[in-house]
């Protein structure tokens, strides 16, 4: 008895995509199967191409689309539950992150490339970057790890040396917290959320940026127990990845470097931040970020502008008016890009022209031109930082040169800078001006932080300029120079400093009325709060201000500054600033004995003064000796700690040291004479002025810190 045709039909080894979707038997005929030929469907045996069959009233429409979900995911994507492109020999996600892509064979899968072929193709397409071991606390030039150096090129480590990829749930939580609480900080505003999330879900976001975002978010927000230490490990690996790709700079790695610089500043690792910032600036120069690129789309151009201005703001904070330290000392001539647009245009991809860094001059008969709608608080923040950098350069030069010519032109330069500050405030539209109503309207807005800090910086610029006339402060002019100036100018400047300090404290008080809505800020707000406290106590202890302040009133305003600093910023550096404010509240401000009209000379400051050039030249006119007879009784001295006292506009001036007797060579144990490799045993150190730090109240800390690779 012959078998029926159905029983004799052989089962094909392959099924086309259309028959599999329709769940019908396919004869597997080469080219086009019988079913697809009869029904007019598109036929394909490529599992990475899918066909959707949509039934309509008119006819059956055939739409060929890429598969939204592949039948087989690689082992890495499967373990992390991430979307896999399914491409061979390496999927898109593994290629972007430098991972070794392995496909496990399935029951119905097509033959795959051999592991050797896939490994070779993955290595040539995207070499993985060097990473630190999980227990490595920081980047160390002397730590070889799995990296090698040949011909000045860092060879990437094998993919197996990288740390396990963060869980997707953690990454998404970190991204959400970053854009909710951190992104509004001007130095982090270069990231576009929609573009970032799209690239991450596509598996093509650079690993270094992912790790950097987790690290900075874990430092500034609460992501859960143990996340602070885990974030530090993520940051070390992110820096390692950026350094491994040193010869191939990219925008994404530069973004990770900028975040790494800020992370080190928050963590009080200033020497590492100083060197990483120089590397990031070189990245920006290589990528031509300081020039417009009209060939790019608007979002790319705007993101590049914001990234460039973030680098400039970091540079101005580091240099604190010292041009020989700044990498971008003349932004007008070095940075040839416009100011950033407002947040709405950046978020929704709405191109609109903005202004250059310097505002347009007043027109005859018309006056100051109104601010265009395209400018937002990001542009205003960049502009006020540029004004402050020029103020610090002016005051630093005045305090260091002390020539008669500079002293003669000082009143005119101060008047010009004050006029620019007044013009800045006059151009603000009514909704941008400081008022209690405008503050409360932004209570639940992500723009609250930049709104507050722009106005705080406007006040701080006045303090930076006026503090030049507060005799006794280490950044002020000495008494012989102040006596050569117009007494009315000196008196008005001191009074203006005290008025702006009181107004800044009132702003902090209004901010604290918002309760839990106080935004996360960088070190700018605690630094300004510290300078405000110094100015208030200077007016109280010298009696030169016409504020009629009592000790209780000054302590109350200073306590407001302390609370604002505590509620806005976290991290070791912020904790140091808060400790300095508490110390001033408890022990007062240390001033020289010769302060003008001083009813009290507080000598109970907790640590001796580091001798600067100003202190040395003032020594002949004001003795820095303790005086127990003070009108106000302060607490006794407490031992000094190694925490830094931070004052953003600190203007310490250094002089060439007096030549000391030549010390014996450190290499004398090896050779009998001089040695070319001889160096100071204490290592390379940075002065506190590089970050605007005021170290006058601490004998230890950064000046005694060695610069080694471990500080990177």
Automatic annotation (TrEMBL):
<keyword id="KW-0805">Transcription regulation</keyword>
<dbReference type="Pfam" id="PF00172">
    <property type="entry name" value="Zn_clus"/>
</dbReference>
<feature type="domain" description="Zn(2)-C6 fungal-type">
    <location>
        <begin position="73"/>
        <end position="103"/>
    </location>
</feature>
<keyword id="KW-0539">Nucleus</keyword>
<feature type="compositionally biased region" description="Low complexity">
    <location>
        <begin position="147"/>
        <end position="163"/>
    </location>
</feature>
<dbReference type="Pfam" id="PF04082">
    <property type="entry name" value="Fungal_trans"/>
</dbReference>
<feature type="domain" description="Zn(2)-C6 fungal-type">
    <location>
        <begin position="15"/>
        <end position="45"/>
    </location>
</feature>
<feature type="compositionally biased region" description="Low complexity">
    <location>
        <begin position="115"/>
        <end position="129"/>
    </location>
</feature>
<keyword id="KW-0479">Metal-binding</keyword>
<protein>
    <recommendedName>
        <fullName>Zn(2)-C6 fungal-type domain-containing protein</fullName>
    </recommendedName>
</protein>
<keyword id="KW-0804">Transcription</keyword>
<dbReference type="InterPro" id="IPR007219">
    <property type="entry name" value="XnlR_reg_dom"/>
</dbReference>
<dbReference type="InterPro" id="IPR050815">
    <property type="entry name" value="TF_fung"/>
</dbReference>
<feature type="region of interest" description="Disordered">
    <location>
        <begin position="115"/>
        <end position="164"/>
    </location>
</feature>
<dbReference type="InterPro" id="IPR036864">
    <property type="entry name" value="Zn2-C6_fun-type_DNA-bd_sf"/>
</dbReference>
<dbReference type="InterPro" id="IPR001138">
    <property type="entry name" value="Zn2Cys6_DnaBD"/>
</dbReference>
């Amino acid at each position: 008895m012959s078998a029926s045709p159905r029983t004799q039909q052989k089962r094909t080894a392959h099924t086309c995509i259309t028959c599999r979707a329709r769940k019908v038997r396919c004869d597997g005929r080469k080219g086009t199967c019988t079913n697809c030929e009869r029904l007019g469907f598109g036929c394909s045996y490529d599992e990475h191409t899918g066909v959707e069959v949509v039934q309509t009233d008119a006819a059956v429409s055939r739409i060929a689309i890429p598969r939204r979900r592949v039948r087989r995911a690689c082992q890495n994507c499967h373990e992390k539950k991430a979307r896999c492109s399914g491409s061979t020999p390496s999927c898109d996600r593994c290629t972007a992150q430098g991972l070794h892509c392995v496909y496990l064979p399935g029951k119905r899968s097509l033959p795959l490339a051999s592991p050797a072929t896939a490994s070779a193709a993955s290595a040539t397409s995207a070499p993985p970057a060097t990473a630190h071991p999980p227990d490595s606390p920081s980047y160390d030039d002397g730590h070889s790890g799995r990296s090698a150096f040949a011909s000045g090129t860092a060879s990437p480590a094998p993919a197996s040396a990288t740390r396990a990829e963060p869980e997707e749930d953690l990454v998404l939580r970190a991204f959400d917290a970053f854009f909710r609480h951190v992104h509004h900080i001007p130095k982090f505003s270069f990231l576009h959320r929609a573009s970032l999330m799209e690239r991450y879900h596509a598996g093509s976001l650079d690993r270094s940026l992912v790790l950097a975002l987790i690290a900075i978010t874990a430092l500034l927000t609460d992501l859960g127990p143990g996340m602070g230490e885990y974030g530090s490990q993520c940051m070390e690996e992110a820096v390692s990845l950026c350094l491994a790709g040193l010869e191939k700079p990219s925008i994404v790695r530069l973004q990770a470097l900028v975040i790494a610089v800020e992370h080190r500043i928050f963590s009080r690792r200033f020497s590492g931040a100083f060197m990483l910032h120089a590397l990031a600036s070189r990245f920006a120069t290589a990528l031509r970020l300081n020039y417009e690129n009209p060939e790019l789309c608007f979002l790319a151009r705007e993101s590049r502008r914001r990234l460039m201005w973030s680098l400039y703001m970091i540079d101005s904070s580091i240099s604190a008016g010292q041009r020989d330290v700044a990498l971008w000392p003349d932004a007008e001539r070095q940075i040839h890009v416009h100011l950033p647009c407002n947040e709405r245009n950046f978020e929704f991809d709405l191109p609109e022209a903005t202004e250059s860094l310097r505002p347009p001059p007043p027109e005859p008969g018309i006056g100051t031109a109104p601010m265009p709608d395209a400018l937002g608080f990001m542009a205003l923040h960049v502009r006020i930082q540029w004004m402050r950098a020029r103020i610090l350069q002016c005051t630093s030069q005045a305090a260091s040169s002390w020539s008669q010519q500079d002293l003669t032109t000082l009143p005119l330069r101060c008047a010009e800078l004050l006029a620019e500050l007044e013009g800045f405030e006059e151009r603000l539209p009514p909704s941008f001006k400081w008022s209690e109503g405008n503050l409360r309207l932004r209570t639940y807005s992500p723009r609250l932080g930049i709104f507050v800090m722009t106005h705080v910086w406007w006040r701080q610029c006045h303090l930076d300029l006026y503090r030049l006339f507060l005799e006794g402060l280490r950044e002020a002019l000495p008494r012989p120079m102040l006596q050569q100036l117009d007494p009315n100018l000196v008196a008005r400047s001191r009074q203006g400093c005290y008025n702006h300090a009181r107004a800044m404290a009132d702003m902090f008080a209004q901010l604290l009325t918002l309760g839990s809505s106080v935004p996360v800020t960088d070190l700018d707000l605690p630094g300004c709060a510290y300078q405000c406290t110094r100015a208030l106590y200077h007016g109280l202890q010298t009696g030169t201000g016409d504020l009629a302040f009592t000790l209780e009133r000054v302590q109350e305003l200073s306590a407001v500054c302390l609370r604002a600093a505590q509620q806005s910023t976290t991290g070791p550096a912020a904790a140091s600033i808060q400790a300095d404010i508490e110390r001033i509240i408890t022990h007062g401000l240390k001033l020289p004995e010769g302060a003008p009209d001083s009813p009290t000379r507080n000598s109970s400051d907790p640590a001796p003064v580091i001798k600067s050039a100003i202190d040395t030249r003032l020594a002949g006119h004001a003795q820095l000796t303790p005086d127990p007879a003070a009108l106000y009784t302060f607490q006794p001295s407490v031992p000094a700690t190694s925490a830094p006292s931070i004052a953003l506009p600190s203007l310490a001036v250094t002089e060439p040291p007096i030549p000391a007797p030549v010390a014996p060579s450190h290499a004398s144990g090896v050779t009998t004479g001089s040695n070319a490799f001889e160096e100071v045993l204490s290592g390379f150190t940075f002065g506190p002025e590089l970050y605007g730090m005021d170290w006058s109240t601490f004998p230890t800390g950064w000046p005694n810190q060695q610069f080694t690779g471990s500080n990177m």
